[in-house]
Amino acid sequence: MLDLKRQYAPIHQELLDALGRVLETQQFILGGEVAAFEKAAAEQLGASHALGCSSGTDALWLALAAAGIESGQAVVTTPFSFFASASSILRAGATPVLADIDPVSFNLSAAAVSAVLDGPRGAAVRAILPVHLYGQTIEWPSFSRLARERGLTIVEDAAQAWGAEWNGVKAGGLGNIAAFSFYPTKNLSAAGDAGMVTTNSAELAERVKMLRQQGMRRRYYHDELGWNARMDGFQGAVLAVKLKYICAWNEARRALAARYHALFAQAGLAEAGNYPVHGPVHGVVLPRELPGAHHVWHQYVIRAPRRDALREFLTARAIGSEIYYPLPLHQQEALKSLGYAAGDFPEAERAAREVLALPIYPELREDEQQTVVAAIAEFLS
Ligand SMILES: Cc1ncc(COP(=O)(O)O)c(C=O)c1O
Question: Beta-carbon neighbour count of residue 378 at 10 Å?
């Protein structure tokens, strides 16, 4: 599914030198390497402020807490995401309110959010936390309009979307504040856990800085209940090196996605027409890049008939695949108290049954992609 050693090989000396600098300076928490990474990251994203922190999960919590989300309030998010998109809202003391996804992009549907805001759970909602799933931003104009009309804050979960854009504006600079993850499988990845908060607001940035350091503005004087959520020096050093390559790596992912599209089409396996597909499916439904979006293909996710049997078939041939995500958030045991039931979000539930992520990373070879597509063709024949 992912061979990180192929990324490491050509840059290993640069990474070792960067790690050596941290050891030389002994600045293990935040420090110069993290500050340099933050500055370069903000420049690349076109955001005014970028603040390194300990993980994507902590970045989400920091973003929500900095935006003043608290107990008694609610935040709308998607049921089809990684657990942290919802758990961070609970950790901030607020209540996640869910709305269904758009079946083409797999992202939160603005129309569904709008309906939820008009419903019984809508009154307490102060913010929307959309996720740029699989590396494609949400359909931004609809969300921007919704936020403006309803006076809501937008907290982007950009964990999977470093470099993704909507009409030339990068994820991380679309909403009021955003959270990134540098978990090792992400497009831009650390050598451990790390994350980042970005914002164009000086006030929010100042609050994130305070909250990631135990709520301190002045050493040992705690203004608010913050947390230890700082980025460590080794991660900043590694990320600063990789930041130089991420644009080229994302371009490579785009070329790989285009090649998957072509290979599936050549094999006659690309389901025609717009989703939702009605009737029997003979091929697979390919992922789409929305007009306006610049997709960075963190994942290449197809919808497949008999998905679980297909996955077993691929596994038996040593072909990696993954299901992001097999169980929507409203059906998770840990989130039972939210009071949702199976059937509440049909598109999220259908996606959970049908999606299959295929190998995609910058160093993946053409012959490997051909092998993947040939195996799927064999399964479907
Ligand atoms: C959509 C999404 N949100 C949040 C996170 C949390 O990030 P982390 O694992 O760095 O805490 C992840 C990644 O794992 C993610 O994919």
Answer: 10
DSSP three-state, residue 347: helix
Cα of 285 from ligand 1 centre, angstroms: 26
Pocket test for ligand 1, best of 181, 185, 232, 301 (most atoms within 8 A of CB): 181
Q: Give dist(CA 363, CA 237) in Å, integer.
A: 22
**Pick from 10, 8, 161: nearest CA to 81:** 161
Q: Residue with structure tokens 């002994």? A: 26
Distance from Cα 82 to the centre of ligand 1, integer Å? 6
How many angstroms separate the Cα of 30 from the Cα of each of 3, 34, 127, 229? 29, 5, 29, 10
Distance 304 CA to ligand 1 centre (A): 25
135 lines ligand 1 (CB under 6 A): no
- CA proximity to 348, closest of 322, 327, 321: 327
Tell whether ligand 1 has an atom less than 6 A from the beta carbon of residue 103. Answer: no
pLDDT of 345 higher than 80 = yes
pLDDT digits (tens, 9 = 90+) for 147-181: 999 999 999 999 999 999 999 999 999 999 999 99
160 lines ligand 1 (CB under 6 A): yes
State how far Cα 127 lies from the chain centre. 18
Question: Which amino acid is residue 90, in one-letter code?
Answer: L
Instruction: Average the pLDDT over 114-129 and give the result.
Output: 97
Range 341-354 average pLDDT: 97
278: pLDDT confidence band, cut at 50, 70 and 90? low
pLDDT tens, residue by residue, 192-236: 999 999 999 999 999 999 999 999 999 999 999 999 999 999 999
What DSSP designation does 67 have?
T
Does residue 53 sit in helix, strand or coil? strand
Q: How far is the CA of 252 from the centre of ligand 1 (A)?
A: 23
Average pLDDT of the chain, as a whole number: 97
- pTM for the whole thing? 0.98
Q: Which atom of ligand 1 is nearest to the CA of 183?
A: 10
Cα–ligand 1 centroid distance for 257 (angstroms):
22
328 residue type, one letter = P
DSSP state for residue 293 in the 8-state scheme? E
Q: How many residues does the chain have?
A: 381
